[in-house]
Amino acid sequence: MTMVQCLSLPDANAKCVMDCETQTYNSICAADDKGTTKTYRNVCVMKVENCLQNANFQKISDKECP
């Protein structure tokens, strides 16, 4: 038997869907063009948040932000 799970998402957010739960926990530090820094669980989570929030965080380090 095959089970299929369907999600109903607004069209605007559909392009932002990525399966970050299967990604390894690998903290990164990212910064935006204003100099704001933020720690993310991994690059995938950063990309999804960038998409959903129309943000532009970029990875600057392979560790948590200070």
Task: Give the secondary structure arrangement, pairings included.
Elements: H1 11-14, E1 28-31, E2 37-40, H2 43-53, E3 58-61
Antiparallel strand pairs: 1-2, 1-3
Walk me through the structure.
- The protein is of the alpha+beta class.
- The protein has a domain at 24-66: Wheat Germ Agglutinin (Isolectin 2), domain 1 (2-Layer Sandwich).
- It has 2 helices and 3 strands, in the order H-E-E-H-E.
CATH topology of the domain at 24-66: Wheat Germ Agglutinin (Isolectin 2), domain 1
| Sheet with most strands: strand arrangement | 2-1-3
Summed up, the helix count is 2
Q: What would CATH call the architecture of the domain at 24-66?
A: 2-Layer Sandwich
The biggest sheet, with number of strands, parallel, antiparallel or mixed sense and barrel status, is: 3 strands, antiparallel
- Chain-averaged pLDDT: 86
Q: Classify the oligomer.
A: single chain
Stretches where pLDDT falls below 50 for ≥5 residues?
1-9
Distance from first to last alpha carbon: 49 Å
**Structural class, please?**
alpha+beta
Radius of gyration: 14 Å
GO cellular component, one term: extracellular space
Domain Kazal-like: 16-65
Pfam families: Kazal_2 (PF07648)
GO molecular function: Wnt-protein binding
